[in-house]
Write a structure and sequence with these properties.
By secondary structure, the protein is α/β, with parallel strands linked by helices. It has 31 helices and 21 strands. A hairpin with an 8-residue loop joins strand 10 and strand 11. The longest helix has 18 residues. The chain is globular. The protein binds adenosine-5'-diphosphate (2 copies) and zinc ion (2 copies). Pfam families: ABC_tran (PF00005).
C-alpha cells in the first residue's frame, strides 16, 4: 500500500475492490474508473447499496475517521464494517443521501445550505440602520434572537378548553391529562387547597376562582384540607403546565404525556417577532425595504432575483456567492423553498437536494460523491438539471457514483455497473459493466426492462364513486376543489413543490377517515424485530415447534428462554475498546443466530428454529405449506415483491421502499380502503415497478382505491385517472391544471407532464 502510494498517482488509478462480501455480495472483484459518472443499476435487493454504501463509502469514511483523534472520532457518524479482501485507491467520499436533515427546530434550509450566513453578512454590511456584526443577525445569538420565542419563531400555549372539562367539578376529574385523575398527587394540589368547592362545576366558578385555578402562582395556602402536604406551594394550571411540560425537552416526557400534550398545546407564530425569530432591533435593519426575516421567507427563486438586483460594490463578493448558491437551488428544482423552512419538514428527496447545494459550490476535486437515487421527487422536466449538475461535479475532477433507476440518469453514465441477476441470495454479482451503449445489447434484467416498449393502458377503468374535496387551502394550495375517483388507480402528478403532497397527504386525510397512508417511514420495534415479527407469524411458528417438541414456546424465542446467553439473542457481540471504536462481531457461541444450543438442537422436519429464520420467503412458504396462519402472510410478502428477504433479517436493514412494501403487505389482509402512496417506485428497478403495478391492480380489483403521488412515467401510463397540480412550484403552483385519463393527458395543452408521457409511450 505504502509503496504504491509513493510510485503512482493514486488519483488516476481505478478504485479496486477485491472479493467484497458485505451482505449478499458474492466475492465481488471490480475496478471502478475515477473521474467518471458511474451508475449502479439492478433490481431492488440485488446488492447496489451493499457495494456502494456499505462497502465503498463505509471503508472510505472509516479510513478518514481513523486519521482523527478518538475524541473527534466518537463524534463522527459510525459505519458498519465492510467485508472484503482488499479495497484500494479509495478517494475521500461524500455521501449525499436521502436521510432527513436534523430534526432540530433551529435547523432551516438557510442554515443547512450556509446561505443564511451570507445573508447575515450582507445585512451587517449594508443594512440600515447599521446594527452590528453579522453574528447578531442569527436567531441563535442572544443579542439577535427574539426573547419571547427564544429564536424559534413560534410559541406554544396551553389551550385551556382542551385541558379543562368545564362541565365537571374537581371531584369529577376535569383535567384531561395523564396522572391528574381524581385522588392522584397532582390532583390533590388543587382539590386539597381549600380554595375551591370540590363539587362545583368548573364552568360555574367566579372570575376570581377561575383566575386562581388557571393563573395564580405561589398564593399561600392558609386553610388546606387534611392530606395537604404542608410545604407545597400553590401553582395554577397554566404556570404548572408551562413549567412541567412546555419548558422541558420532549424527550424527557413519556409517550402518553407527549400525546396528551399535543392535544392541549397550540403552536402559533410568535406575536413579538411575527415568526421572524429575531428581536425588534434586528428586524428594524433593512436592505431595500426588506428585513432579514422578510428575505428568509421569500422563495429562493425570488430571493436570488432580489440579491442580484443589489448593485453595491462593497458587497459584490457576498452577493455573487449568495446568488450562486441560490441559483444552484433553483437549478435542482428547489426554487419554491424558502430559507426559513425548517429542514425537519422536508421530504427525503428535498433533503438530498438541499445537501447537494453545499457541495456544488465546493472547489474540492478528487472527491467521490455518492448519490442514492437523486432523481427522487423530481419531475421528468427537471431531471436534466440534475444530470447537468452531476456532469459538472465530474468535470470539476471528481468521481460521481450514483445508485439510480431512472433511464434519463442512466443515460448520462460514462460507465454502468449492473448488479444481479436477482435479489438477496440470488443477487450480489456483477452481471454487466460497460458503457450505456453496450448495456443496450446486454441480456440482463436491466437491459431488457430498458428496451421494453411502453404503452398506455388501452381501457382505463371507470370510477365506482367519488371523494369530493371542496375549496381546500393549505400552504400553497389555495381554494382547490377536485374529485378523487374511487375504485380505480389515480396518479397525482406535477413539478416538485406544486402541492401534490399537501393535497394528498395533508388535506385528504383530514376530510376522509377511511384513507390509509403507506409511506416509507421507520417501522418501529427493537433490534430483534424481523419480517417474521412484523407480519405476525413468529408466534404460530413457535407454537408449531413447541407442539412438536413438547417444550415451552418461549424456548424458541431469542427474546425469551431461547436467547443465546453470550449475545442475549442479538447474534452479535460488542467489544468496547478503550481508545477505538467499539467493534461488533458475529457471536460465535450461537453462530450469529441469537438462539441457545438447546433451542437449536430441536428439529422440526429437519430444520431448527434458527434454520427457519434463515429461510427466504418462498422456502418458508414451502416449509409451512399446510399451515394457513403462516403461509397466508408469507404469500402477501411475495405479492409485494419482498420474497428475497429472510424471516429473521433485521428490520433496520430495510430500505425506505422495502419498508413501504412491508407495510402494504400487512394491509393486504383488509379491504375497502383508500390507499395513499408517496412515490412508491423509489428504490424500485424498472422490472420491480411492473410487479408493483400488478399489486395496485389487485387492490383495485377487490374494491380498494389507489391514489399515488408519482413522477414515474410507467406508473402514469398505467393509471386510470390523472390529476395534475401546478402550473409551477410554491406560490406559482397549488392549482389543479388537469384532470382526465392518461390518454387525454398526452394531448392536454395545459399540462407540463403530457409531452413527457407522450414521448415515453410514443
Ligand atoms: P439494493 O441496494 O440493490 O436494493 P441492498 O444492497 O440493499 O440491495 O441489499 C442486498 C441484500 O442484502 C438484500 O437481500 C438485503 O435484504 C440484504 N441486506 C442489506 N442490508 C443488510 C444488513 N444490514 N444485514 C443483512 N442483510 C442485509
Ligand atoms: P409537492 O408534493 O408537489 O412536491 P408540497 O405539497 O410538498 O409539493 O409543497 C407545496 C408547497 O407547500 C411548497 O411551496 C412547499 O414549500 C410548501 N410546504 C410543504 N410543506 C410545508 C411545511 N411543512 N411548512 C411550510 N411549507 C410547506
Ligand atoms: Zn419571537
Ligand atoms: Zn449468541
Amino acid at each position: 500500500m505504502t509503496a504504491e502510494r509513493r510510485n503512482a498517482r493514486p488519483a488516476s488509478l481505478p478504485i479496486r475492490i477485491v472479493r467484497a462480501r458485505t451482505n449478499n455480495l458474492k466475492d465481488v472483484t471490480l475496478d471502478i474508473p475515477k473521474h467518471r459518472i458511474v451508475v449502479f443499476t439492478g433490481v431492488s435487493g440485488s446488492g447496489k447499496s451493499s457495494l456502494v454504501f456499505d462497502t465503498i463509502a463505509a471503508e472510505s469514511q472509516k479510513q478518514l475517521n481513523e486519521t482523527y483523534s478518538s475524541f473527534v472520532r466518537n463524534r463522527l457518524p459510525h459505519y458498519g464494517q465492510p467485508e472484503a479482501d482488499g479495497l484500494y485507491h479509495l478517494p475521500a467520499s461524500i455521501v449525499v443521501d436521502q436521510k432527513r436533515l436534523g430534526g432540530n427546530a433551529r435547523s432551516t434550509v438557510g442554515t443547512a445550505t450556509d446561505i443564511y450566513a451570507l445573508l447575515r453578512l450582507l445585512f451587517s454590511r449594508i443594512g440600515e440602520p447599521h446594527v452590528g456584526e453579522s453574528s447578531v443577525f442569527s436567531f441563535n445569538h442572544p443579542q439577535g434572537m427574539c426573547l419571547d420565542c427564544q429564536g424559534l419563531g413560534n410559541v406554544d400555549s396551553i389551550d385551556v378548553d382542551s385541558l379543562v372539562d368545564w362541565s365537571k367539578s374537581l371531584n369529577e376529574g376535569p383535567l384531561r391529562f395523564p396522572a391528574f385523575g381524581v385522588g392522584s398527587a397532582r390532583w390533590k394540589r388543587y382539590a386539597l387547597t381549600g380554595f375551591f368547592d370540590n363539587d362545583k362545576k368548573l364552568g360555574k366558578y367566579t372570575a376570581a376562582e377561575r383566575h386562581r385555578l388557571l393563573h395564580e402562582d405561589g398564593t399561600p395556602v392558609t386553610h388546606p384540607l387534611p392530606g395537604w402536604y404542608a410545604s407545597t406551594k400553590y401553582e395554577g394550571l397554566i404556570p404548572r403546565f408551562k413549567r412541567s411540560y412546555l419548558e422541558r425537552e420532549l424527550e424527557e416526557l413519556s409517550k402518553p404525556e407527549r400525546d396528551a400534550l399535543s392535544r392541549i398545546v397550540r403552536r402559533e407564530p410568535c406575536p413579538a417577532c411575527g415568526g421572524g425569530r429575531l428581536n425588534a432591533r434586528i428586524l428594524a435593519c433593512r436592505v431595500r425595504g426588506k428585513n432579514i426575516a422578510d428575505c428568509a421567507a421569500m422563495e429562493v427563486g425570488d430571493l436570488r432575483d432580489f440579491v442580484r438586483s443589489l448593485d453595491v460594490p462593497e458587497v459584490a463578493t457576498v452577493v455573487s456567492a449568495m446568488a450562486d448558491r441560490l441559483h444552484h437551488m433553483v437549478n435542482i428544482g428547489l426554487d419554491y423553498l424558502a430559507l426559513d423552512r425548517e429542514t425537519a419538514s422536508l421530504s427525503g428527496g428535498e433533503s438530498q437536494r438541499v445537501k447537494m447545494v453545499r457541495h456544488l459550490g465546493s472547489s474540492l476535486s478528487d472527491i467521490a460523491y455518492i448519490f442514492d437515487e437523486p432523481s427522487i421527487g423530481l419531475h421528468p422536466r427537471d431531471v436534466h438539471q440534475l444530470t447537468d449538475l452531476l456532469t459538472r461535479l465530474r468535470d470539476n475532477g471528481n468521481t460521481v457514483l450514483v445508485v439510480e433507476h431512472d433511464p434519463d440518469v442512466i443515460a448520462i453514465a460514462d460507465h454502468v455497473i449492473d448488479i444481479g441477476p436477482n435479489a438477496g441470495a440470488d443477487g450480489g454479482r456483477i452481471v454487466f459493466e460497460g458503457s450505456v451503449d453496450a448495456l443496450a445489447t446486454a441480456s440482463t434484467t436491466t437491459a431488457r426492462a430498458l428496451a421494453k416498449p411502453r404503452a398506455l393502458k388501452t381501457r382505463p377503468r371507470h370510477a365506482s364513486g367519488y371523494l369530493q374535496i371542496e375549496n381546500a387551502s393549505m400552504f400553497n394550495v389555495s381554494n382547490v376543489s377536485v374529485r378523487i375517483p374511487l375504485g380505480v388507480i389515480t396518479v397525482v402528478v406535477g413539478v416538485a413543490g406544486s402541492g401534490k403532497s399537501t393535497l394528498v397527504h395533508r388535506i385528504l386525510p383530514r376530510l376522509h377517515p377511511n384513507v390509509v397512508r403507506i409511506d416509507q417511514s421507520a417501522l418501529g420495534g427493537s433490534r430483534r424485530s424481523t419480517p417474521a415479527t412484523y407480519i405476525g407469524i413468529l408466534d404460530p411458528i413457535r407454537d408449531r415447534f413447541a407442539a412438536a417438541s413438547g417444550l415451552p414456546a418461549g424456548l424458541f424465542s431469542t427474546n425469551s428462554l431461547g436467547a443465546c446467553p453470550e449475545c442475549r439473542g442479538i447474534g452479535l457481540v460488542r467489544t468496547d475498546l478503550a481508545f477505538m471504536d467499539a467493534i461488533e462481531a458475529p457471536c460465535e457461541t450461537c453462530d450469529a443466530t441469537g438462539f441457545s444450543d438447546q433451542a437449536r438442537s430441536f428439529r422440526l422436519d429437519g430444520s431448527s428454529i434458527a434454520d427457519v429464520m434463515k429461510m427466504t420467503i418462498p422456502a418458508a412458504k414451502d416449509f409451512f405449506a399446510s399451515d394457513e396462519a403462516i403461509r397466508a402472510p408469507l404469500e402477501r410478502l411475495e405479492r409485494v415483491g419482498l420474497d428475497y428477504m429472510t424471516l429473521g433479517q433485521q428490520l433496520s436493514s430495510l430500505s425506505g421502499g422495502e419498508r413501504q412494501r412491508l407495510k402494504l403487505a400487512t394491509e393486504l389482509a383488509r379491504t375497502g380502503r383508500i390507499y395513499l402512496f408517496d412515490e412508491p417506485t423509489s428504490g424500485l428497478h424498472i422490472a420491480d415497478i411492473e410487479k408493483l403495478l400488478r399489486l395496485f391492480d389487485e387492490l383495485v380489483a377487490r374494491g380498494d382505491s389507489v391514489l399515488i403521488v408519482e413522477h414515474n412515467l410507467d406508473v402514469m401510463a398505467h393509471a386510470d385517472w390523472i390529476i395534475e397540480m401546478g402550473p409551477g412550484a410554491g406560490h406559482r403552483g397549488g392549482q389543479i391544471v388537469f384532470e382526465g385519463t392518461p390518454s387525454d393527458l398526452t394531448k392536454a395543452t395545459s399540462s407540463i407532464t403530457g409531452p413527457f408521457l407522450r414521448k415515453h409511450v410514443g
